[in-house]
Amino acid sequence: MGENDKRSPPDRVGRQCVDAFRHTMATLMLEGGADVRFIQAMLGHTKLDTTQIYTQVSIRKLKEIHEATHPAKLSREPRTERPEPAGEAGPESIE
Q1: Intervals of the chain under pLDDT 50
Q2: Checking phi first, is residue 64 left (phi over 0); if not, alpha (psi -120 to 50) or beta?
Q3: Which residue in 54, 65, 53, 47 sits closest to 30, CA to CA?
Q4: How far apart are CA 50 and CA 44, in angstroms?
Q5: Are residues 8 and 17 in contact, defined by beta-carbon separation less than 8 angstroms?
């Protein structure tokens, strides 16, 4: 929306809401595993480049999740020895 936009403010606000909805829908679909070509068709984009903007959002989200959940970053609880299940003899009980 540039300086030459002649629409009234309520029209611009309405358009922003529609654009935000489309962007959110496409991002959530992509994060949910939808094919980018399917999203392209739903949004009516003629060029895949236009739709691929949403993949950047997903890559950022993926990096956030990776950083938050990667085992090297998580604090690990110390390992405790598990008791052997009843009925199973360990090597020390064999005569």
Answers
A1: 1
A2: alpha
A3: 54
A4: 10
A5: no
